[in-house]
Amino acid sequence: MKTCVKCKSLNKDDNNFCNACGCSEFVAAPEGAQVPAQPAPAHVHKKDYTMYDLFTIFGFVSSIIGFFVIALVLEPLSLSASIAGFAKGKRWRGLAIAAIVIAAIGLLIRLFVTLYDIGMIPEWLITGTFEN
Ligand SMILES: [Zn+2]
What is the pTM of this model? Predict the structure, then answer.
C-alpha cells in the first residue's frame, strides 16, 4: 500500500497514478493500511467542479424555495441556472434534471394559481363539468 502525497488516498503499490486524484507521487502507507472497498474512479477529481456546477446547486435550491416564496422570480431563475448547469456542468447532472423538473412544476402551479385568481381559468376546467 502507498499513500498519494496530494490527496492522501490509499493506493495499491502497482498503481502508477492515484485512484482518487490522478497524481503520480506516493509515499509509503502506514502498516496494515487497506485500500477502501470502492475507490473513487480515476476521472472524479475531488473538489473539481465548475461555476456551472454551482449553477446546478443554486438552481436546485431556488426551485425548492420557489415553492414557498416568489415563485415567478425563483422558478425561472432556477430553470435557467439548472439548464446551464446540466448543459455545461461536469457534476450533479441528476440534481440539475431534478431542479428543472421541480422548477417547471413549481412555475406551472404558480401560473395556474395566478390565472385562477384573476379569473382566467374557466370553472369547468376545475370542476370537470360544464354545468353551473
Ligand atoms: Zn491522490
Answer: 0.52
